[in-house]
Amino acid sequence: MKLLYIHQHFTTPAGAGGTRSYEMARKLVARGHQVTMVCGSYAGGNTGLTGPFLRGVRSGSVEGIDVIEFNLSYANKDGFLTRVRTFVRFAARSTWIAVSQPFDLVFATTTPLTAGIPGIAARSLRGRRFVFEVRDLWPELPKAMGVIRNPVILGAMSVLEWLSYRLANRLIGLAPGIVEGIEKHGIDPKRIAFVPNGCDLSLFGGDIPAWRPLTVKTDSLLAVFTGTHGQANGLDAVLDAAAVLKQRGRSDIEILLVGDGRQKPDLQRRAAAEGLSNVHFHDPINKRQLATLMKGADIGLQTLANIPAFYNGTSPNKFFDYMAAGLPVINNYPGWIAQLIEANTCGFAVPPHAPEAFADVLVHAADHREQLVKMGRNAAALAEREFDRAALSDKWVDWIEGTA
Question: Model-level pTM?
Fold first, then answer.
């Protein structure tokens, strides 16, 4: 089968972003399918292509995947209008490929929601099979966050969401709340599969050297956050907890925030103004270096803004990376991730807007290292038992191959 895979933010492990699409595409290739990945230039990402852009595009083969990369840069720190323009331009160029070249199936994964446009066009104009993967519920999520308030834009996004769900032959949701959200639009549950983000045990497991930045003491409890520093990530809650730790004189607990995003300068200014020397910032690192950092860390931080749409509607890459590395996790919002942590005793679930409680679990972790080690083993066992990406990718490809 010739498959066109649309993912604007595609990256290989050489980049700092999530590698789900890379792993899934490789599994398709291993099953004998021909895969063309269409993507943009994502900040911190690495598509594996190194040649120059010619007329705004470059292409080549990366581990058996044919990659077409448009010179359309995107970063979380970009302004709203800049991001919208990038999304629209990528959708337009991807749509042209989808309707002009002989693919059997178009697979599109969000975000953004505009990723569905090429699939809609290929299904409507050429009768091609279309599978739509939903990573976040749009426009529900940006509306809940207050990022988009214009009723015309929200209305247009609702129409695009409805068309994407209706015209897709099959759909994939990455979280239980996403699957439920799709079903609420009247979509037959038989057309929807739940395939969450998975744990890359081959990358994060095994004998990996441990690494910590030189700014972090070797004997401190190290809590790490890895990912985007954006509005959705609610990292002020981490700084709130750091301020409590400072008041308590717990200099043996340090926090490392790895990544970039629109909120990072504000977070850095706040940490400096409040003298939070227990908080360190680090530039994004690729997945391979991330694996060594997690070997040197003691606990992972999974934080989000306190928005109900997040509770069961997200499948965070970092959470699954932490588990794959055998790191216990602190999670600060209710929902399915918190339930997983509590049911499997692989970390701590704290309520939103509770800096004292957040600090309490960090202190408890520092004072009970042996318990932390057991939680880490539980996290690794859960990763292998339920979220091994090798097994999930087989389920994912089976679902794609069964598309009628």
Answer: 0.93
